[in-house]
Amino acid sequence: IATLTAATGAALAEMVANLTFGKKGYEEVQTEMEELQVKAEAIRNRMLELSQADADVFNIFMNALGLPKNTDEEKATRTAAIQQAYKDAAMVPFEIGELAYQIFDLAELASKKGNQNLITDGIIAAINARAAVKAAFLNVRINLSGIKDEAFVAKVTAKMNAIEQNLDAKEAAIISLYK
Fold this sequence. Notes:
By secondary structure, the chain is mainly alpha-helical.
């Protein structure tokens, strides 16, 4: 859901750019809109790929849980596989959250300089970005709870905290553009 929410947010910013091209009064922002369109399209496409990647790492995790645990060697192999699967299952939604966070810049540009008949679409892109980051990072946190590598957990948590501390302010700033 986080990937689809983010992909929709990116698509909205992309749409604003596309509907600004060639419009009278927006001649000076054509280059910025072209860059916005390219970046938004790339994020949208990557999110769709990450949707499948998230499903794939879940399946890997489930397979690791199903490994045999009759001998000490099997138990060790299973534990290692589960730990790696937890890490993989955390890092896919982490990438989703990081990438969704980039949508804020696109949403802001779309809202400020894009076709003003579509300003609310740019703002909704920001709302979707926030929702996608929050959703993705909730999934990261649940997977981090099973990881025994404390340094890994601390590093990922610190990165998420740094991103999350700005979410509300970024969304509010973009929403405030609509008067």
